[in-house]
Design goal:
The protein is of the alpha/beta class. It has one domain (5-335): Alpha-Beta Barrel (TIM Barrel). Helices cover 41% and strands 12% of the residues. The chain contains twelve helices and nine strands. It has helices spanning 15-23, 39-55, 67-75, 95-102, 132-144, 155-164, 188-197, 218-232, 250-257, 289-298, 303-321, 325-335; strands at 5-9, 28-34, 60-62, 78-84, 105-109, 147-149, 170-171, 200-203, 237-239. The strands form two sheets. Strands 1, 2, 3, 4, 5 and 6 form a six-stranded parallel beta sheet that branches. It has a three-stranded parallel beta sheet with strand order 7-8-9. Helix 8 packs across helix 10 (289-298) and helix 10 (289-298) packs across helix 11 (303-321).
């Protein structure tokens, strides 16, 4: 069974968007629950999602295990998996990793652009790698079954996470730096490390991560994926659109500036246009995933490779990542 999975979205959720997700046949989506929220604010966001699950049970439900992807396909719904783009939700308490995992958090970035208690973000001038707490939190995430996401982290920190983590890590939404030199995009060293260790890279459609921005064409995007596959293989590649559909421009300030500065952090965008840039015309919303599949075929990928990139690789990664460490080791022994 082939699946369609998006490795990251942060949309202004509504019934209309949920219906578009279903119209696009998306089986699972990793959604951003947290940018800068603390623990209590994170719980409030979960409460909001609980109301949506209650209101539209025929469209969406909360995903906890990889098996929920197949359940979504069989029941004609979409499994929603929670993630955090910042470790602010655990504050300075490692015990909250397990608490949040029990509430459904399945991904957590160790940094969001800046230095955190755990690691260094991609916007810092100096990258010190994982901190003492960072190493402890990675081990705890490995234990409970929470994915280490390094999408907004610096080079040294990302490579340190690959080395220290006993489970493969993810870069859920970024592109190769060699294709477009945005600070958030990843070096060949990082991409190669993901490929060699069972990690995964979700290609982003967020215009600031694309060559030519909003004008990036489908052929160029899929050629980027093809060149990456030629160098490193297609076994670890997926899609992480970073779709921020219907979000007001004011949300950009929260994403980039949070509460850490009084100024507006413009990030990689122009100071004259700090809001959300338009998405490429060939991917307006979840109904356009078919365009990516067509583009990958045109770029030379075989049908099984297209299926893997569009969701199969994510499904396998979810299956290896979401269970507790003991369960994972027992499954490995059983397979042997």
């Amino acid at each position: 069974m082939s699946f369609l999975i998006d490795g990251l979205q942060y949309s202004n959720w509504s019934e209309e968007i949920f219906r578009q997700i279903r119209a696009g046949g998306v089986d699972a989506v990793h959604v951003t629950l947290v940018y800068h929220e603390n623990f209590r604010e994170t719980v409030a966001n979960i409460e909001r999602w609980n109301r949506w699950f209650e209101r539209w049970p025929e469209l969406i439900f909360q995903g906890f295990t990889a098996e929920d992807i197949a359940l979504a396909r069989v029941t004609g719904r979409t499994a929603i998996f929670f993630g955090s783009q910042n470790p602010s939700c655990i504050e300075d308490d490692i015990g909250l990793v397990e608490v949040l995992h029990r509430l459904g958090l399945r991904f957590m970035q160790l940094t969001y652009n800046n230095q955190s208690l755990l690691a260094t973000g991609c916007y810092e001038a100096e990258d010190a790698g994982l901190t003492r707490m960072g190493r402890e939190v990675v081990a705890e995430m490995n234990r409970v079954g929470m994915v280490v996401d390094m999408s907004h982290s610096g080079e040294r920190s990302t490579l340190a996470a690959v080395e220290h983590s006993t489970r493969p890590i993810a870069v859920t939404h970024a592109n190769p730096f060699v294709w477009h030199p945005a600070r958030r995009n990843k070096s060949d060293a990082v991409i190669g490390a993901l490929a060699q260790t069972g990690g995964i890279l979700g290609f982003s459609l967020y215009p600031h991560h694309l060559r030519d921005g909003s004008s990036c064409d489908l052929d160029g995007f899929c050629t980027m994926i093809a060149r990456t596959a030629e160098r490193f293989g297609s076994h670890f590649l997926g899609i992480g659109t970073d779709l921020c559909q219907d979000q007001p421009d004011s949300v950009v300030e929260w994403m980039r500036s949070g509460r850490w500065t009084k100024m507006v952090d413009y990030g990689e965008g122009s100071k004259e246009a700090p809001g959300f840039p338009p998405m490429p015309g060939w991917f307006r919303d979840n109904r356009d995933f078919g365009n990516i599949s067509k583009g990958l075929r045109a770029a030379g990928f075989a049908p099984d490779e297209v299926a893997a990139i569009m969701g199969g690789n994510w499904a396998r990664f979810f299956a290896a990542s979401f269970g507790a460490a003991q369960m994972a080791s027992e499954g490995k022994r059983a397979a042997e």
